[in-house]
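Input chain follows. Return structure tokens only.
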Amino acid sequence: MKIVSAIALISAFLLGALITSAAPAQSMEQQIVPKEREGLDALKAGNLELFGNLTADDAVFIDTHGSATKAQVLRNVTGFRLADYSMEDVKFVQISSKSGLITYKIRESGTSHGKEFTAQAYVSSIWTKRRGNWVCVFSQESIAK
């Protein structure tokens, strides 16, 4: 009986190891870039709750108007809706074991407070893992000329 239990335990361990090695862990870049897209898709869908959940409470955003807190950004995007966007030339730098920086050029169109717009900008975002979830802690957008 002890031999059967030992064989079952070893088999379960080997099966677990095989499953773990068969499904390689995603790189940090493969986790963060989709989170950035998820935030943009939330703005496209008008889902401010999701956008807010992807943003750290202590996040800082910077654009041509200066810096803003999460609360300020959420107020500002109330009248903002992306119609379409594309991310080009995405680059990634791992900052620590729980943080990474992405940069890219965005081409976007939509409406902002009742006015249609098209724009191109360079974006930098820092994402960090807190309590098991990726959140954006910093984002800067600079208009591309």
